[in-house]
Structure formats: C-alpha cells, structure tokens
Amino acid sequence: MTQDPPGSTDFGFQQVPWRDKAKRVRAVFDSVADRYDLMNDLMSAGAHRLWKHFTLSLTGLKPADRALDIAGGTGDLAAGLARQVGKSGLVVLADINPSMLQHGRDRLTNRGLTGNVQYVQANAEQLPFPDESFDVVTIGFGLRNVTDKAAALAAMRRALKPGGQLLVLEFSTPVLPALGRLYDAYSFNLLPWLGRAVAGDAESYRYLAESIRRHPDQEGLIELMKTAGLEGCRYHNLTGGIVAVHRGYRY
User: Fold this and answer.
1) What is the pLDDT of residues 89-122, one digit of tens each?
2) pTM (2 decimals)?
3) With CB atoms counted within 10 Å of each terminal CB, which end of the chain scores lower, N or C?
4) How many domains would you assign to the chain?
C-alpha cells in the first residue's frame, strides 16, 4: 500500500505542491538547456570540469563494466564513463528532461562516443532498470532537484550490482563561514545577473541558487544515503565544501 505524498515541498525558497515540483524543475531546464554548458563554465570559472574529473577518478570502472549516469544532462560525466568502460562496456545516460537528454545525445555523438552509450528518459525516483544492473551509478548536480531524494537514492541502490558504487556530485555547504558569506553574495547577486545576461533567464538561476541552500549538508546527505541502504558512505569536500562528492556502496 503506497502512502500519499506530503502536501508540499520546496522549490527553491518557495513551497509548492509536492506533485508540481517535477514540472517546475523541467521548465527551468527547458529554459536553460541551450546555454547550460556555457553557463556552467561562466558560473564556476571552469571549475566544474575539475569537479567532474575528480568524480570520474573515483569510479574504479574497468573495460566491459556498466555505468548509469542519472540526471546526466549534456553528458560530461557520461562521456568520461564511456571512455572508462570502453567499447565492450555500456553507459546509460538518463535524464527526466527531454531537452537536456537531446543535448547530451548530440554532444556525445559529435565527440564520437557512439556504440557504448544509450539514452533513456527516466525519473530518478522510478528508474526503469532491473535490479543489480550497474557497476557504478553517478548523479552530478541533479539530486537537489529531485522531489523525493530518499526514493531516488533507494532506486539508485537497487540498480547497483553487489559491490557497486554510487557517486553523488553536488553543491554542498562551505566549511568556512567567510567562504559561505562570499558564496552567498555571489549566488544571490552575480548568478542571477549572469543568467539574465547570458541565458536570458534570471529566475531559473535564482532557483538554482536557492535549491542549493535547501539541499542537505554533507552529513545530512550521508544519513540519507545510509537510510537508503548504502554502506561505506563518505564524502570528499571540493573547493572548500562548495561542492562535495558523496560515495556509497551496495554490498
């Protein structure tokens, strides 16, 4: 017997009906899809590439392995995973948003990454894959946009093979108060300005800044992962905790 969802949830600093959040998030990414990669470079001064490179260095993937990249967007992590598993392996790039998924397909195809990559439109909370399908599951800058994070983490664990690893790359909580103050000033002033000037959409980038503040901090996410049944959970702070990579295993 399934339980009814709560009446409301956060959408940035707003409270919206639980069932409406996914639709609102989709509208945000429909709006920013065309300029998503350019904005990532501008917002992070290119640091997002280093964060993703570090995440990929933790996978332990071997040729012929299978990996799933959830909320894979325009395919940065999926591209690295595809190189790691080689032609005999498989990477599935999954995203709930068809606009982002199409951009990911186009980018990877243009980079010659074909044959070992598949594309699936999927909700992270209800993954359409059999149990124990993947050696590694990744989600980069997507978990905070999921309505039911607990359900999504449980679905990711279910999709992992025994011994498989989940890697969550996400904005987190700065470890130094002074850094936190600078980060707030940047997020709530410069980031919406960049969104308006480059992507023609200040509101979507204001939501993205707000969604980071609603996301659990490092220890809070560890607890969510443990509750989902993941073991050996730990995290690595990057750029002073502005970003963290969380790791957990299905044993």
Assistant:
1) 999 999 999 999 999 999 999 999 999 999 999 9
2) 0.91
3) N
4) 1
